[in-house]
Amino acid sequence: MTKKPSRIIIKRRYRNNKIEVIYRKTNPIANSNGKFPPLTSCIKVEEGIIIERDVPVNLRDGTIIYTDVYRPEGASNIPAIVAWSPYGKRSRYTGYDTLGVPPLTVSPMAKDEGPDPAFWCKYGYAVVNPDPRGVGNSQGNIVFLGTAEGKDCYDLIEWVAMQEWCSGKIGMSGNSWLAMIQWFTATEQPSHLTAIAPWEGATDLYRDILCRGGIPETGFTEGFYSFFYGPAYSEDIIAMIHKYPFMNSYWEDKIPYLNKINIPAYITAGWSHFHLRGSIEAFRKITSPNKWLRIHRDFEWPDYYTPNNLKDLRDFFDRYLKGIRNGWEMMAPVRLDVMDVDDSDYQVNRCEKEFPLERTQYRRLFLDAKTGHLSNYPVKKESYLSYESTKQAAKFTIEFKHNVELTGYMKLRLWVEADGADDMDIFVNVQKLSKKGDFLPTFVLGQSHPGASGLLRVSHREIDKERSTPAEPVLTHSAEQLLKPGEIVPIEIGIWPSSKYWYAGQKLSLAISGHYIRDSRWFEPFRWELCNRGNHVIHTGGKFDSYLLIPVIPPKPR
């Protein structure tokens, strides 16, 4: 028997361009410890739920994928919820007590990060758990999101709608990949997709996860492949970011056309999650008149399975998949948690009409390299500071004289110089300090979070002027702009949105470094491929108007 090569290249078309796509061998099913058993094609009943195993579904190109279907016994004319991801349709929830979900909270029927049939079938819904193309026993190669996977999910949805037990109303639900695929599927506008609930879903694989700020991340990303089991190959996005480090039609294909989404959507975002920017971006850009956003301080898994949130999601699906007039339309378009410290919140589920908030008052805090302070007024005298790029950091602080809420997007404008290098990787964190200057973190799964963050590889500094706003710089990622010796350039670093309350006397700290602040075990899987060497030099004052733009929120008008 001829051994399969570890990698292959297939030419595929992306938005009218042919791209050489690299694939790697997928982990063999035999190594999955029984997670992907042989096909059974059986029907059984457990706890009043009909379970159909390994039902074949033909995709438009003839590829066969297999899905499990859970539906309440004796029920007909019912809606279905689709949970699409490559992690296995019969995942086991082992160890989730350490990740915020206690043992026995979720039944063995549930797909990782997806709706639990033991819950939803009791309320008159079917749950459909497919193994997508190339996963488990499904045919083909694994596709890493994008238009092609959206079309595959489209085909599954239309198949579900034609089943004799189905009402023709289909929803989608789940976290992470199960959320991201919803953008691509809804963009394809399958006729029976009636409502979506993407809870925590990035919308730009390049900018949100793989190459945020132009800095490749290959540690957490490599972890995806440990969950992929199948008969053939998986699209290798790590190899692709090395082959195509700048934006092209391949990466653009992994950005959904959000303006084509016009069905009801209930979206969530976590202040401390890498899905944050993308989830909020989707809420702002989809064209549906029926859209809701809830931004919370918890992590995605406990948030998804918390009883109150399950009730919330059921009300949404009851309204749009069953037509029950339960007052859902009266729900505020935006709800958000305003964080304080530890595991407490200043306000929970505060109702708003939009995001970012219309009443935001943007304010500039100017950096002073000489004093290490942030000033409310422009700094007149030029000065600079430098730090060793691989180990050290620069910090600037300001004490608030009055209570202040900062909710929304921040931006850091810096004048920088590379001493001994032609490029710089810069990591930014905005943190809350006590009156004594001690770090006051919030916590995610029991781990302290390092604060609102921004990243930039300086050679990727070119701004897309049409898409950028004063508070939200958007990078083109179109070409490399290396630095010359002694060259001082202005850069803009977008800081992902946050919401936090400072009391009078407490301080805001701005940390700037060439590496990620690792004071939390939660961020250990992340590994950025850094270019730093030599010193980073920050210039402030006079013509070097380095400043931090902050979103100050006044109280709601009565």
List keywords for this structure.
eleven-stranded mixed β-sheet; Jelly Rolls; globular; alpha+beta; 558 residues; 2 domains; 10 helices; Rossmann fold
Short description:
By secondary structure, the protein is α+β, with helices and mostly antiparallel strands. It has helices at residues 117-120, 147-161, 177-188, 205-210, 219-223, 237-243, 249-252, 276-285, 300-305, 307-321; strands at 7-14, 17-25, 43-46, 49-58, 64-72, 78-82, 126-131, 166-175, 193-199, 233-235, 265-270, 291-296, 334-339, 345-352, 361-368, 373-375, 383-388, 393-399, 404-419, 425-433, 443-444, 447-448, 452-457, 489-502, 507-513, 535-540, 547-552. It has 2 domains: 7-331, Alpha/Beta hydrolase fold, catalytic domain (Rossmann fold); 361-552, Jelly Rolls (Sandwich).
Describe the model:
There is one protein chain. The chain has 558 residues and is α+β, with helices and mostly antiparallel strands. The protein folds into two domains: 325 residues, Alpha/Beta hydrolase fold, catalytic domain (Rossmann fold), CATH 3.40.50; 192 residues, Jelly Rolls, CATH 2.60.120. It has ten helices and 27 strands. The strands form five sheets. An eleven-stranded mixed beta sheet has the order 3-4-5-7-6-8-9-11-12-13-14, sandwiched between helices. β13 and β14 form a beta hairpin. α2 crosses α3. The longest helix has 15 residues. The radius of gyration is 24 Å and the shape is globular. About 1% of the residues have low confidence.
